[in-house]
Amino acid sequence: MAGENNDEVLKDIDSKSGPKRAPSVLWTTAEDEKWLDLLLEEQALGTQAENGWKTATWVKVLSKLQEALPKAAKDKTVDKLKSRNERVRVPCFVPLVTLTLILLA
Q1: Tens digits of per-residue pLDDT, 8-21?
Q2: Can you give the pLDDT at residue 99?
Q3: Domain of 74?
Q4: What pLDDT does 68 receive?
Q5: In contact, 37 and 65? CB cutoff 8 Å
Q6: What is the helix, strand, coil percentage profile of the chain, to 5?
């Protein structure tokens, strides 16, 4: 009887703890190099909007990343890619080529 109540309490606590976070993903140097190269290609094609990248560009970059590195990039999503970009991004006045060199150093 007491065990049943404990299970109900635990379920209640879990349901009140708020939204679950998506699992973290690890980024390898090879993945960072590849998605940066892909963004550079897209930039050369003019698919970068004035204030960032177009959604279609993120989808295309992720698709190409998963094709190039299928095992490593299998758990990556567009949201994870955008998040990674935010984490490694330096002030917007630094060209993307410079950012590539910083990451590769």
Answers
A1: 544 554 455 566 77
A2: 62
A3: 26-104
A4: 94
A5: no
A6: 65, 5, 35
* Total count of domains within the chain: 1
Please classify residue 68 by burial: count the beta carbons closer than 10 Å to its beta carbon, then call 0-12 exposed, 13-18 middle and 19+ buried: middle
Q: From residue 6, give the alpha-carbon distance in Å to each of 1, 9, 11, 17, 63.
A: 9, 5, 9, 17, 46
The low-confidence residues of the chain, meaning pLDDT below 70, are: 1-19, 90-105
67, 11 contact by CB (below 8 A): no
Q: Give the separation between CA 39 and CA 35, rounded to whole angstroms.
A: 6
The pLDDT value given to residue 56: 92
**Does 16 fall in a domain?**
no
Give the H/E segment covering residue 49.
strand 48-49
Please give the Cα distance from 92 to 90 (Å, whole number). 6
Place of tokens 């960072």: 32
Instruction: Tell me how crowded residue 102 is: count the other CB atoms within 10 A of its CB.
Output: 11
